[in-house]
């Protein structure tokens, strides 16, 4: 009996030691890759909305993206529509959010909530979120993802259409006063934080849909109607060519180690 008690005591001590060690390991665990990017100045700039993000704000945004955690929490899980880590879905109905500028996403959520950018799905979700929650979830997605890992494969496209799309993206059309996309969206179409989103690797269907909405005046929440003024000059063929080309560019990260936000080299079309 004494031996049994002693053995049990020994086992309890061993188990307690294991739990203490595990707790110490957990407390000392290195941050995840997105959290580690909080120490990267260009990544922090990409994600900043009102203040430089920290681990607490990032963690809160992750909780909201998972469908909970906050006064305005909707119970809707962002991942269901926008994919793991915000990589987007294959249909183009729900765009990639990962590594878009935090301020840009925060503005879009505000526009959804205020009706400036009406959408049957996003408007009620954005309305339910507080301003602080919109900031947190925007920070989370700005710091999430890895270029190319979640990019949806695209079917083959007409080479001539891709060539025309590449020309419009790179130099525009002087005779029709269509400016080059790279003038605002960056030399590699990776975006220019804080207000201009990346287009490289975004779903072609989503890009074409948004350009069409701007062209028809159904979307008009861009500053000074810049996109509306451009899209109205584009034919449907222009829109599809640009969308096909941009969607087949590898997803370029504006915050890769050692690369400044606007200095990503132009990638080759896949």
Helix content: 40-55%
How many angstroms separate the termini? 73 Å
- Estimate the mean pLDDT confidence: 82
What are the segments in which pLDDT stays under 50 over at least 5 consecutive residues? 1-30, 258-270
Structural class estimated from helices and strands = mainly alpha
Give me the CATH fold name of the largest domain: Cytochrome Bc1 Complex, Chain D, domain 2
Q: If helices are DSSP runs of H or I spanning 4 or more residues, what is the number of helices?
A: 13
CATH superfamily of the largest domain: Cytochrome c-like domain
List the domain count as a whole number.
2
Task: Describe the protein's architecture and organization.
- There is one protein chain.
- By secondary structure, this protein is an all-alpha fold.
- It has two domains: 55-150, Cytochrome c-like domain (Cytochrome Bc1 Complex, Chain D, domain 2); 159-251, Cytochrome c-like domain (Cytochrome Bc1 Complex, Chain D, domain 2).
- Helix content is 50%, strand content 0%.
- It has helices at residues 2-28, 33-36, 41-47, 55-65, 78-82, 102-114, 122-128, 131-143, 159-170, 182-185, 204-216, 226-231, 236-248.
- The protein is globular and about 50 Å long.
- The protein starts with a helix and ends in a 22-residue tail after the last helix.
- 39% of the residues are buried.
């Amino acid at each position: 009996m004494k031996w049994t008690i002693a053995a049990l005591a020994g086992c309890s001590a061993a188990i307690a030691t294991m739990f203490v060690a595990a707790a110490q390991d957990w407390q000392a665990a290195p941050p995840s890759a997105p959290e580690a990017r909080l120490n990267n100045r260009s990544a922090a700039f990409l994600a900043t909305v009102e203040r430089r993000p920290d681990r607490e704000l990032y963690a809160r945004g992750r909780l909201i993206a998972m469908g909970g955690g906050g006064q305005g929490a909707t119970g809707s899980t962002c991942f269901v529509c926008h994919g793991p880590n915000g990589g987007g879905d294959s249909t183009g109905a729900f765009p990639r959010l990962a590594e878009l500028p935090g301020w840009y996403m925060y503005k879009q959520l505000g526009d959804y909530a205020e009706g400036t950018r009406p959408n049957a799905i996003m408007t009620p979700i954005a309305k339910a979120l507080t301003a602080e929650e919109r900031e947190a979830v925007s920070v989370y997605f700005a710091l999430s993802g890895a270029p190319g890992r979640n990019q949806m494969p695209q079917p083959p496209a007409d080479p001539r259409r891709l060539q025309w799309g590449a020309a419009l993206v790179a130099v525009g059309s002087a005779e029709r006063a269509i400016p080059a996309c790279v003038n605002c969206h960056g030399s590699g179409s990776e975006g220019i934080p804080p207000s201009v989103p990346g287009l490289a690797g975004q779903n072609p269907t989503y890009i074409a849909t948004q350009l069409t909405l701007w062209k028809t005046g159904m979307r008009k929440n861009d500053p000074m109607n810049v996109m509306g003024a451009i899209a109205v000059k584009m034919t449907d063929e222009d829109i599809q060519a640009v969308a096909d080309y941009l969607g087949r560019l590898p997803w370029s990260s504006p915050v890769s180690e050692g690369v400044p936000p606007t200095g990503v080299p132009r990638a080759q079309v896949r």
